[in-house]
Each structure stands twice: as C-alpha cells, then as structure tokens.
Write a structure and sequence with these properties.
This is Succinylglutamate desuccinylase/aspartoacylase family protein. With 300 residues, the chain is an alpha/beta fold. The protein has two domains: 209 residues, Zn peptidases (Aminopeptidase), CATH 3.40.630; 67 residues, RNA polymerase II/Efflux pump adaptor protein, barrel-sandwich hybrid domain (OB fold (Dihydrolipoamide Acetyltransferase, E2P), Beta Barrel), CATH 2.40.50. Helices cover 23% and strands 24% of the residues. The protein is built from six helices and 16 strands. An eight-stranded mixed β-sheet has the order 1-3-2-4-8-6-7-9, with helices on both faces. Helix 1 crosses helix 6 and helix 4 packs across helix 6. The longest helix has 16 residues. It is globular.
Amino acid sequence: MSNLFPITTIRGSKPGPDGLIIAGVHGDEYEPIRAVVQLLKELRNTLLCGSLTLVPIVNISAYLTASRLGEDGLDLARTCPGNKSGSITEKVAHEISNLIRKTDFLIDMHTGGNLFDISPLSGYMLHPNLEVLETQRAMAEAFNLPIIWGTSPELNGRTLSVARDENVPAIYTEYRGGGFYPEGITDLADGCKNVLAYFGMLPLEKGVSKVALIIEDNHPGSGHLQEMYPAPEEGIFVPEVKLGQEVKREEILGHIWDFTGKKKTDIFAQQEGTVFLIRAVPMAKKGDALAGILSSVNKD
C-alpha cells in the first residue's frame, strides 16, 4: 500500500502475468479515473490467472487542484523516475516507477485534460527490443481505439520511459479532453479488459475492430503533444477544423487573434493527414500547442 496514492491488487486463482493499470497521472483527466474505478468493481473474483494492480489516481496533488501539474508545479509525466526525497511530484514519480519495474505490462490512461481535445488513441514507444515492441503493438490493437500511434523511444520522464528501460511492454491511451465524455469510461474499461484477455487473464471475446488508422513515427520528438503546431504569438486560437478531418498541406487549421481583435494570424497545415488534436482552451501563449496532424496510413 502506498502512502501517496491508492493501490488495489486483484489476484487470479492461477499463476500468470502481473499487470498494472493506472490513471490520474494528470489531475484534470477524469474519464480514465472513472474507468479504473469501474474495473475495480467489475474484475473482483474474475481473473483467470495472474494479478492486476490498479491505481485510479496516481497524482492526487494535481487532482485536488484540477490541474495537469502537482502543487509543486511539476508535471508527473516529465518527472519519472523521480526522487524518493524530493518534492511531492518527485516522490510520486519515484513510487509509481517502482511499481512499473515490478510489473509484466503497463496501461497508462490519459485524456487531453483541460487543454486539448484528442481523438481516442492507443500509443506506445517504438521499443528497440522487437519482442517488447510486438507485444506493445498487440496490446494497442487489442485496446481497440480508432487510432494506434507508435512514437519515438527517446522521450524521457514518463511512465512509458520507465517501462522502456525495464523492457516492460507498455501502452498509453488518450480519449478526448476539454470537457467530460461519459462514453469514454466504458470504452477505456472495455479496452483494458481486451488487453487482459490478450494476456489470458480474462476470457477472449472477439469483437469488431474499431482501428482505422495505424501510425508509426520514429522521428525524434514524435509523441510530444505539447510541441505540436506551436502558437507563433500570444492570442485567442479559433480552429477551423474538427477532430478526424482530413487536411492537405497549407490548408488553414485556424487563426490566432490578438486581444483587440484587430490582428489575425493564420495557422496552416504543414503536412497532409488527419487532425487528431485541437487546442480546447482558446487562450494561447507563444509556443503553446494549437493542433496535431497524423500523416495517414490506413489499416487494411
């Protein structure tokens, strides 16, 4: 039991994998928290084998202020593996990192929080170990969200980078943001159960695949949402596109207006692809992310 966040472990009747499912790494991401609570209710006495550790809220400090950041101003998703003797976020990072090191697979669920609206997706790092990578690909496909996104293994400070260093197969999910979407609770809980079935921990129920887009991008920095389409200057961002919209290079994504309403700066698409991220908070400072596009690679 942690002194920093709630932990529950459910055990099956037979030996098997030890899984870890977490939510609330950021305090303003609510559907994953509710999904883990739902799993706690549904999965008791149901695991066929192994054990499953569930953490509904990793970052209580951020949750209590409805913020991405902890009370020390740190982002937990940039602080791992943390410091046992550090600030509150560093301590939480240290403790969740220790849990990750002891597990056989990790699911870390997110949303765009207050800042972004993100198309539902499951993602993973393009791990150099082919066995780990193939397991992550299978986990992401089993989770069964419309987009699968493999990204650079070089990003650090995250739960997935801790898993990467320990050769623990790990995926994360994003599900909307900039509001509350109750359907996300069911979709995320079902996705977790699909992954557990893949590992033989629940009965396998073959359903219809929702996966429509698979992207693997190994370029340095891919996967860093907060750096996509940075605002060229401070102002109010008014988007002209919607999630899931196909855009062409040089198509207008939106506009930045200064507070007087006299100056408008157009934001153009720099590549062809699918809009999967839109800033949900209109006010943007220079450098803040405004939108995200995934170059289209359709699943057969």
